[in-house]
Amino acid sequence: MGKAPDRYTEESGHRRPDVSVIHCLGAGLVGSYVARKLADRGHDVHVHDFNPHWGIVDYRGITIHHGDALDHCEQMYEFGEFDIVVNMLPGDIGHAAIEILNESPYRIVDLSFSKFTPDRNPDKAIEFGATILWDVGIAPGLSNMLLAEAYRTMGPLLKAEVRVGGNPIVPTGGWNYMAPFSPNDVIAEYTRPARVIRNSEQVILPALSERHIIDVPEKGEMEAFLTDGLRSVLNSIPVVEMSEFTVRWPGHIQRFIDERDAGTLLEEQLVSEWAYNHKTSEFTWMEVRAESHDGTTITWQLQDHGGVDGHSMARCTGLVTLCCIDEWLDNPGMLPPGVHAPEMLSPNVLTRILATMTNERVEVEGPIITNSLG
């Protein structure tokens, strides 16, 4: 693994002082966190959701538009002028929202996690003048930026691996798990074939394969398995072998496989059994490790245990989203019309994201980002 990483200590950048109008589509566990933080920063926040999370009801600075967020996408111009739309709708609903929004000259920050990604049709966004920054969470998102930094620092890579998971802080019995975002998206993650890089070529492997035990600092043995979370970096990072693994407590994924194979796995039941319980202590952990052809390695690790402002996955995911919004508000010309993956952002943006996460008490360890321009 190479030498132990240094603790990240750089100061974050300045923040845009004036008020911006921001529309948030979706207000679940993660979406409500982002909306609250935007409101806390003084922005005029509009939330579109059938049933928004209770934590944003009557929250100062947030206007709630009850109803179908997809219908509202069709009529977004009726809500007056605004600066950015943040798409935090789950899965295929989020994709449907993007397909509507990219027919107007909006700036869109996309946190939805659909198998249908915005980069499938970049010409459409350019034609209508839309600008989309997509996959702006912890993984994908921050993981992409860190892999891009490893490539910038070391050149074409021999191996790159992302391991990430949000879990109860100790095994809880049963599934040993609760979903920190849409349980349906977790199920899709477990069933969607995993695209990875092997021998410098993209290949498709079964989800949940290549299972192995890892040691998570301060937690002990956990299990990692392949999932389809690499997405845009499959095409943007030159590498011989690259994988993304989801991390769970041992026994969780074997139970899923056993019930799936026995035909007893019911999606509606999983949604209930994996429901998030705010009384259960939990944490999010990610490791991004890259190895160059000369054997040099770079490793970053992040860990968070939640706080009074939100659970750990909402914080880790939402802080990346918030920083991307901040950067775009600070620099409206940051991106031209089209579709942009997070690894296309500058190293300076990554520096400020890591500093902001550290300032928000997320534990971040790894090399400082240096020699960046602009």
The CATH topology of the largest domain turns out to be Dihydrodipicolinate Reductase, domain 2
- Radius of gyration from CA coordinates: 20 Å
Q: How many beta-strand segments? A: 16
User: How many helices?
Assistant: 11
What is the percent of helical residues?
25-40%
Q: Strand order within the widest sheet? A: 3-2-1-4-5-6-15
Low-confidence stretches: 1-16
Distance, first to last CA? 32 Å
* Strand/helix succession: EHEEHEHEHEHEHEEEEHEHHEEHEHE
Average pLDDT reading: 92
Question: What's the CATH class of the largest domain, please?
Answer: Alpha Beta
CATH architecture of the largest domain: 2-Layer Sandwich
The geometry reads as globular
Q: What is the count of structural domains?
A: 2
Structural class: alpha/beta
For CATH, the homologous superfamily of the largest domain is named as Dihydrodipicolinate Reductase, domain 2
Structure description:
The chain is α/β, with parallel strands linked by helices. The protein contains 11 helices and 16 strands. It has helices at 29-40, 69-74, 91-101, 122-128, 142-154, 183-191, 233-236, 252-262, 267-273, 312-330, 347-359; strands spanning 21-25, 44-49, 62-66, 84-87, 107-110, 131-134, 157-168, 194-198, 201-205, 212-216, 220-226, 239-248, 282-292, 297-304, 338-340, 363-365. Strands 3-2-1-4-5-6-15 form a 7-stranded parallel beta sheet, with helices on both faces. It has a 7-stranded mixed beta sheet with strand order 10-11-12-7-13-14-16, with helices on one face. Residues 1-16 have low confidence and may be disordered.
